[in-house]
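[Structure tokenization] protein backbone as discrete codes

[Encoding] learned vocabulary of local backbone shapes

[Begin record] amino acids and matching fold tokens:

___
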Amino acid sequence: MHSSRKEHRRTSRPAGTRGGHRTKSRTRRIVIGGGALASAAAVTVAVTVASAGQYSGSTAGADRAVFVQGNEPDGNTIHVFARADDGKLSPSGTYTTGGKGGDQVDAPTDSLASQGSLVYDDASGMLLAVNAGSGTVTSFRVEGQQLKDRHVVDSGGKFPASITVHGKVAYVMNADGEGSIQGFKITRKGLKPLHGSYRSLGLDNEDIPLFSSSPGEVEFAPDGRSLVVTTKSSNTVEVFPMKHNGLPAVTEPVVNKSAGGVPFAISFDRTGKRMLVAEAEKSTVTTYQVKHDGKLKVLQQPLASGQETLCWLERAGDYFYGGNTGNSTVTGYRMNKHGKLALTNEVGIATPPSASSQGVIDLAVTEDEKFVYVQNAVSGTVDGFRVEANGALTKVTTAGGLPAFDESGMEGIAAV
């Protein structure tokens, strides 16, 4: 995980929207910023749920793990996988979060429509998970592949969908209504609300938002001086300049118009000086400089990949990998020493697509930056890839038995 990942957003559904957790097959056609997305949802996979502290499989001497959030609406869970030296995954337990998963209105493959809903903080050794359906956030202490000391706290709003961490402070992005951010202190007993940290995003959503109008991610700049939030249909990138005490320095965010349509995911280069934003409308990535006053300077205009519905973006060294849910591919990007971003190959695909890996959504990169793990929401699987010297991805593992997308589905992944 990178800087901000390890240290470093209608109480009732409108008629005709999803409410229960039924098992069925269907096809949806969703329009995002003028682009159409068709996807067939698979049959939901049955999952055996154990309470926190109960786990199966050997964890002796192993500190490497991949965590996947099930996001089940009747009881959210974290699925833990042991990670071998070669990147292969093996099941190591399932833990309940004490909250409920959520499902945004008309989400095509990604129930939370966000990046960063599950975060591992290396400094504290904590795993932080949103419970969108119950408006809470859960923290666990991570010991190898075991999750201990579960604590649940109110998120400060409704439908929490993204978390970011810097130092001893975490911020949660709530996607409901106006949208909001809420800060927390990271303590040995979990998260404690940070007085005076709440800020509205000034949006206009229902309590359970439409997936295309909810905010996409909250992310700290690596130096901690800025907190950034993307919106989607508002087409803005909103910045909160931050004080040293972890509080926003402004009452309202500095609102910047997005250079590309439907801004979603945020990532920073290894220097922390350049911010990359993935944009879903035309599957582009824009490079910015975040100024101290919260204004953005475009360093490189939107770079298109030729893929469909880019929503997620994570860094591995000088490479970046983006998840394209529209056609279930992963795009590779490389940034040179001058900050110029380019595709790793001319077709915009870092690894061959697979018929058994459908509904690509969120991604996670291991702390050593050698492996990338990708959630396949429709297939109910996670694929693991080795990062090659030229930026290509070589598949090394596939983990199954995860909640596939139908009425809702898994979303959120972290790796150590």
In short: The mean pLDDT is 87. The helical segments are 3-6. The first helix runs from residue 3 to 6.
